[in-house]
Amino acid sequence: MSSKTEEFKDLPTTCISDALSGLTNMDQSIKPVKENLTLCGRAYTVKVRAADNKVVLKAIKEANQGDILVIDAKGFLQNASCGDFIVGLAQTLGLGGIVIDGAIRDLAGIQDMDFPVFCKGTTIAASDKHGTGETNVPISCGNAVIRPGDIIKGDIDGVVVIPQELEEEVLKKAIDKLQKDNLREQKVIGNPEAAKSYIDEQLA
């Protein structure tokens, strides 16, 4: 993991989203297959035709260790973009996770891997392998624009995209937001008088 992605790794998506004014969040239907899974890394993008996942294999081979495979499957839920075997290949080659605007299958097997996979849902049906699609190109995933190399951060709240040209600015704002949130919580939560005072200030 690069130094910059390492700096974002422990920041919650909520603070990063606030730093970006909520403009680069993926659709809220894209969630981790297990609640405790998180991911943070640079995007290696994949654009596929719905129900065709051969190019996903190509991307897994091309991507660098730690990269997040971000798959634009057009939100298609009838056929899986990958199952546990393909996810196992990505894990074996050291990728940092997978985000799919679409479906997976073999949910139990994928959950057992404890490998971060974020998707819209699950299905039973496999995809074809015609090979239509592209890798390492700008895509749309979950209604967010992703370019190769953008930082992708995902946790239980969802997935947010950090554009490369905004990394430093967003990092500073997100850290500041987290520090302010923590300070507010320490002062207010568990203190009834402070809680009432805070609410009065917000309602004034």
Description:
- With 204 residues, the protein is an alpha/beta fold.
- Helix content is 36%, strand content 29%.
- The protein contains seven helices and eleven strands.
- The chain has helices at 3-9, 13-19, 54-62, 84-92, 107-113, 167-188, 192-203; strands at residues 31-32, 39-48, 68-82, 97-104, 117-119, 121-122, 133-135, 139-141, 144-146, 151-155, 158-162.
- Strands 1, 2, 3, 4, 5, 6, 7, 10 and 11 form a nine-stranded mixed beta sheet that branches.
- The mean pLDDT is 95.
Compact summary:
By secondary structure, this protein is α/β, with parallel strands linked by helices. It has helices at residues 3-9, 13-19, 54-62, 84-92, 107-113, 167-188, 192-203; strands at residues 31-32, 39-48, 68-82, 97-104, 117-119, 121-122, 133-135, 139-141, 144-146, 151-155, 158-162.
The largest sheet is: 9 strands, mixed
How widely separated are the two ends?
A: 46 Å
The helix-and-strand class reads: alpha/beta
* Residues in helices, as a percent range: 25-40%
Quick tags:
204 residues; alpha/beta; 9-stranded mixed beta sheet; two-stranded antiparallel sheet; 7 helices; elongated
